# Entry
Amino acid sequence: MAPATYTRLIRFLQEDLAISRASIDVAERVGGNEQRQRDRDPNSLPMVLWQYGLVTLEQLDKIFDWLAQAY
# Structure
């Protein structure tokens, strides 16, 4: 995922879905090497957020819809 797209995703998570920066930070840390992971798989951050209970299934659907439109 391009850095600009990732920045827009983070903004979407915070502004539209009201996901805290702390929750996003946790999901990024869990992913290990964040930059390498998000370059390989843009879906990794949303999946980690969901697996750790930081977003609902409905929010996860919205994130994937956003990602589909971003590409």
